[in-house]
Amino acid sequence: MERSSPSDLQDPKYMKRALALAVKAIGRTSPNPLVGCVIVKDDQIVGEGYHHQAGTPHAEVNALQAAGDQAYGATAYVTLEPCSHFGRTPPCADALIRAEIKRVVIAMRDPNPLVAGRGIERLLKADIEVDVGLMNQEATLVNEIFIKAITTGLPFVLYKSAMTLDGKIATETGDSCWVSSEKSRNYVHQLRDHYDVILVGSETVIRDNPMLTCRLLGGRDPVRVVVDGQLRIPETAQILSVSNHSPCIIATTRAASDNKVKSLQSIHPQVEIWQYDTARQVPLKKLLSDLVLRGWTSVLLEGGGGLAGSMMKESCIDKVEFFIAPKLVGGQGPSPLSGLRIQTMADALVLDNLQVDMETGDLHVTGYLRY
After folding, report:
1. How far apart are CA 30 and CA 26, in angstroms?
2. What whole-number distance in Å separates Cα of residue 310 and Cα of residue 315?
3. Is residue 6 scored above 60 in pLDDT?
4. Any idea what DSSP says for residue 170?
């Protein structure tokens, strides 16, 4: 029978290990979830594994392979309900049944409509004891990106910004090198390695001429997307010429000049131009939905303040990470949310689950948007 409160006092220890395994593949499994699995027999771990990337064997299969014959009569700890359908790989529930696992402890049900309890049901029909819900909150946090995409059709969006203590992302002359510390900037490259897409507005490209690549050794460059309703981006912009395996996409509208479209496509044939049938403004939710259709479920929004404000107005941002440097510049420098204009404090957007640290030398504030 399925139980919601596992009784084994050792269960949390092994589920914690399964969650630690799951996050080893962060940024590599889209559009699939992060999953870890630990197989235990006689209070000893006999096999463990995690899902490395989409299209490869799932966590349960890797753990069963490591356990071999010792999987018989063992307990499996899985961070997400084992799949029950044939996708690019066979069902993991069937693999656990064939291995004659005695008990399966599952942190959370799979929100994917293709699974949604069917994996648990299959295990129960095979007379396997099933416990569900252990460390559910932790497992939900690990897969917040997958859950957002599979339940809404929209990607999980994180807005990252660095600012001075008086709320400026640059001086009034436009100088922004560097607002935050070197450690903060290195952390941002970790985010670029973890997120599928990096998103900026055309103003950021025109002003800063960034490459938007990941500078970590062995890191992965995200897909680069520029929101440019009037196709103002210069043909010489670095972002268009960076030679790597990640696509570069310009999202524009029918306000874009046909000649500019043809010129860009001629000079940079590797660059994709997504032209939406709108007057001047790129339909942000449609753009985000199209990214998920391409298999990209996480977006790192890096600027600027106009685009970030517009996305907040449309409830498109899930989480923020602000790096507040112990610096003051005054003047009329740009803010991280210039595109958001709320008239009364009663209508201010509120952050939940706030976390604050100073590990990088800057005040690092993380929170989730409550709309």
Report:
1. 9
2. 9
3. no
4. S
Which pair of tokens denotes residue 115? 């699974």
Nearest to 249, CA basis, from 198, 317, 308, 194:
198
- Residues 262-303 have pLDDT tens digits of 999 999 999 999 999 999 999 999 999 999 999 999 999 997
Out of 48, 60, 302, 321, pick the active-site residue. 60
Q: How would you class 198 by CB atoms within 10 Å of its CB: exposed for 0-12, middle for 13-18, buried for 19 or more?
A: buried
DSSP helix/strand/coil, 209: coil
Q: Quote the tokens at residue 135.
A: 């460390």
How distant is the alpha carbon of residue 351 from its chain centre?
A: 19
Task: Tell me the whole-structure pTM to 2 decimals.
Answer: 0.92
Identify whether 129 is a catalytic site residue: no
Of residues 28, 25, 26, 20, the one with CA closest to residue 45: 20
Q: Which helix (H) or strand (E) holds 118?
A: helix 118-125
Instruction: Give the pLDDT confidence of 89-135 residue by residue, as tens digits.
Output: 678 999 999 999 999 999 999 999 878 889 999 999 999 999 999 99
Contacts of 101 (CB under 8 A, 6+ apart): 39, 71, 72, 73, 74, 75, 76, 128
Nearest 5 degrees, angle CA 334-CA 339-CA 340?
A: 115
- Give SS3 for 75: strand
Q: What is the pLDDT of residues 139-173, one digit of tens each?
A: 999 999 999 999 999 999 999 999 999 999 999 99
- Sheet strands (E) in the chain: 2-3, 36-41, 44-50, 75-78, 103-106, 129-132, 156-164, 197-201, 223-227, 248-253, 272-276, 298-303, 319-325, 350-357, 363-370
